[in-house]
C-alpha cells in the first residue's frame, strides 16, 4: 500500500471513529458549537496536509484532538471580544497530547442531550445532533428528512443560533430534565442507526457499522439513565434485532440482500435473544396495564416477528399487519403506511398491496423506497414495462450503492 493510501485510510478511519468525540469534547470545553465543529474540521484538514510528509502519528485520535484544541485557542486569541472565554480556555490548556478515551466517556451523550433541548423545535434538535454528533453531512441529513440540502443547512444554523442566544448551558441536564428531551434524543439515535444501516451518501460505505455500533452504545447509556422509559428499551431492542442481521445484508459482490434471502443461520443469535427478551419485558409491562407501547416498542415487536422464525416462509404476516395497524394509530405517516402496504401484499397478495402503495404517490413520489416497493409488486404481477419504469425511478433516487446494485439486477431480470 502506498503512503498516500495509508494516509487516506487512516484519515477515513479516524474521522469515522473520532469525529463525534472530538466535537463533543470541544463543545464541553469551549461552550461553542460553531467553534467545536470548525476546529474539528480544521484539525482534519491539517492532518490531510501534514500526514503525507510526517507520517501517520501513533495515536491519530489524540493528534486530531490536540490539534483541534490548539486551533481553538489560537482562534480565541485572535478574537479580543471573547477575552473572558479566552482566559478560561488558556487556564485549561496544556500541550500534553490528549489520549483517546474508551467507551465509558460520556461527552457524546452529554452533547446529545444538550442539542435536544426543548427550546429547539423537534426537527431542529434532530438535525443539529445528527450533524454534530453523528458527523453526517448536511446532504445526508437532508435525505433522511426528505428535504433539500439548502433548507437543512438553514435549519441547522438556526438551531445553533438558538442555543447561543438562549444561553443553553453546556452541561448534562439534571435528572428531572431528561424526560423532556428524550423524544429528540431517541429520534437522533434512531436516525444515526438508520444511516449506518443503509448509508445515503454517494461516497459512503453502503453499511456503516461504526454508526450502528455507536447508536447502540449511546442507547444503552440512555437506558441506564432512564431504565423505566419503555421507548428507550424498545429502541434498544429494535436496534439489536436489526444489527443482528448485519453480517448477511451484503453479498460478496456488494449487493444488498433482502431479508427473505438472508442466511438466517449466520445471524447473531446473542443479539436476537437479547432483543426478543427486551420486547417480552415490555409486553409484560403493557399486560400489567402499566402504559401503552410506543413507536419504537411496536417496531421492535415487528422485527421480533421477523427474526423469531427459522425460515422467511414461516413469517406471521397477519401479526405484522396488526402491529402496523397499532403503529398507524400513533404515527400515521406515509412511510409507516408504505411499510404496512408491503406487509399487506405478503398477506393478501401483490394486487392488494399495490393498491395501498399507489394511494401514497402524492406523499412519497420523491422517496426511493416507494418506487422500489412499486417495482417489486408490479414485477410480481407480470407488469414488466411498468415495473421497469418504477425501478428506473428508484435507482435514480437511491443514494446507497448496494441498494442500487440490487435494484439494477432486479430490473435486468424483468421479462421483455
TrEMBL record:
Residues 112-162 form the RNA polymerase sigma factor 70 region 4 type domain. Residues 18-80 form the RNA polymerase sigma-70 region domain. The keyword Transcription regulation applies. Keywords: Sigma factor, Transcription, Transcription regulation. InterPro entries: DUF6596, RNA_pol_sigma70_r2, RNA_pol_sigma70_r4_t2, RNA_pol_sigma_r2, RNA_pol_sigma_r3/r4-like, TPR-like_helical_dom_sf, WH-like_DNA-bd_sf. Residues 181-281 form the DUF6596 domain. Belongs to the sigma-70 factor family. ECF subfamily. This is RNA polymerase sigma factor. It comes from Microbacterium salsuginis. The lineage of its organism: Bacteria, Bacillati, Actinomycetota, Actinomycetes, Micrococcales.
